[in-house]
From TrEMBL:
Record's signal peptide: 1-25
Lineage of the organism: Bacteria, Pseudomonadati, Pseudomonadota, Alphaproteobacteria, Geminicoccales
Record flagged with keyword Secreted: no
KW Membrane (keyword) present: no
Keywords, sorted A to Z: Amino-acid transport, Signal, Transport
Protein name, as recorded: Branched-chain amino acid ABC transporter, periplasmic branched-chain amino acid-binding protein
A Pfam family: Peripla_BP_6
InterPro entries: BCAA_transport, Leu-bd, Peripla_BP_I
The organism of origin for this protein: Tistrella mobilis (strain KA081020-065)
One GO biological process term: amino acid transport
Residue ranges constituting the Leucine-binding protein domain according to the UniProt record: 28-369
Superkingdom of source: Bacteria
Alphabetical list of CDD domains matching this protein: PBP1_SBP-like
The family this protein is said to belong to: Belongs to the leucine-binding protein family.
SUPFAM superfamilies on file: Periplasmic binding protein-like I
């Protein structure tokens, strides 16, 4: 065989070998889940994780792939410390090179993380932190939120509770979630004829509510009209059982609050007939996404999905839909795709408002029913409060 033919034979063999070698796998889509897994909001973080993974599964029809790219979730724990929250988000964006981040659990952590998203020019999809300032005066263009904000909580509860002559005292935790919540509630009540006559703030780890409750009761004793104590609280350890034991009804005072996780709502059993508005309860929304979530969660875990499971699923679906719509994981492409984006969640339709990237969503007016066979107070639907009923303020400076 001549030298030229030998060279051709070697080239052909090399080409054949290359042709039969497996193609290089596409880079994975990397998503960071930043949550407060250590501390009093651990249950919230676990639910968000479960919901996120189920949302990614649902949105990718079980493949956990998008456009041939595997989805990889990298978890970070803030320990509910803002300085750690900043550091782990920077680590996720910088060292782990994630395409976007989801979280955190606490509003205090979220506020610390917002500038990091701006510095790295990467998306932070906030779920479930609630404080208005996240999509308000502390917001930047890299922040989107599937979680409801304080104004959505406040407006829906104002719709449920507010009417002329109602006098309200508030009890809230002394950090961004509690203070933003009360401020938004006061604003939302302005058009209803109801008014807040006393505000009480206590540390997040408070367990003895005797003194703050007494101050609230004393403040309400001196007013005329229907009297309501509205509680804004995060965490599994709640004040409701202790408040109920102090017999506020003897003073003509009703307790009211928003929704919470199922273990926390065990305390609601002491308050049958209590009203408020909630973000989610598994038996309320009627749509195919929630049907799948409820069925699969019951099958896999033996329990219904909880408050923040639905939120995590919404975030997972939103992330997949954004990448699919953008055809890319580049930040500017994602922002363009997500502004005004509508997507289906366990609560039905959500819409990322272009002005502040807050997800608009329906809420639910409830009344607590007690069933001896159910471990928690059941929030029975009074009515759905639609997106068009809630004039959620735009609070940023865009």
């Amino acid at each position: 065989m001549s030298l030229n033919w030998k060279r051709l034979a070697v080239a052909a063999a090399t080409a054949a070998a290359i042709g039969t070698a497996p193609a290089m796998a596409a880079d994975p889509i990397k998503i960071a889940l930043i949550s407060g897994k250590t501390g009093p909001l651990e249950a919230y973080a676990k639910q968000t994780h479960t919901g996120l993974m189920m949302g990614l599964e649902y949105a990718t029809q079980g493949t956990m792939e998008l456009d041939g790219r595997k989805i990889e979730v990298i978890e970070k724990d803030t320990q509910l410390k803002p300085e750690i929250a900043r550091a782990v988000l920077a680590e996720a964006y910088g060292d782990d090179e994630v395409d976007l981040a989801i979280g955190p659990t606490s509003s205090g952590d979220a506020l610390a993380m917002l500038p990091v998203a701006q510095e790295y020019e990467k998306i932070l999809l906030v779920e479930p932190a609630v404080a208005d300032s996240i999509t308000g005066d502390k917001w930047n263009r890299y922040i989107f939120r599937t979680g409801r904000n304080s104004s959505q909580d406040a407006i829906s509860n104002a719709v449920a509770l507010g009417k002329p002559g109602v006098k309200i005292a508030t009890l809230a935790q002394d950090y961004a979630f509690g203070r933003d919540g009360v401020a938004a509630f006061r604003e939302a009540l302005a058009s209803t004829g109801a008014e807040i006559v006393h505000e009480e703030y206590v540390p997040r780890d408070t367990t003895d509510f005797t003194a703050p409750a007494q101050r609230i009761f004393d403040a309400l004793d001196g007013v005329q009209g229907d009297k309501v104590l509205f509680v804004i609280w995060a965490g599994a350890s709640t004040p409701f059982a202790k408040l109920a034991a102090m017999e506020p009804e003897r003073r003509g005072i009703k307790i009211a609050t928003g929704g919470n996780i199922l273990p926390a709502m065990a305390a609601y059993k002491a308050l049958p007939g209590m009203e408020g508005a909630t973000y989610y309860y598994y038996d309320i929304p009627k749509n195919p996404v929630n049907d799948w979530l409820v069925t699969e969660h019951q099958k896999r875990f033996g329990t219904p999905p909880d408050f923040f499971t639905a939120g995590g699923m919404s975030a997972g679906i939103a992330a997949v839909e954004a990448i699919r719509k953008a055809g890319s994981t580049e930040t500017e492409d994602l922002i363009k795709a997500m502004e005004g984006m509508e997507f289906m969640s366990p609560k039905g339709k959500m819409i990322f408002r272009k002005e502040d990237h807050q997800a608009l969503q329906e809420m639910y007016h409830f009344k607590i029913k007690v069933d001896d066979n159910v471990a928690w107070g059941i929030p029975e639907l009074v009515r759905v409060i639609g997106i068009d009923e809630m004039n959620v303020p735009v609070r940023n400076k865009r």
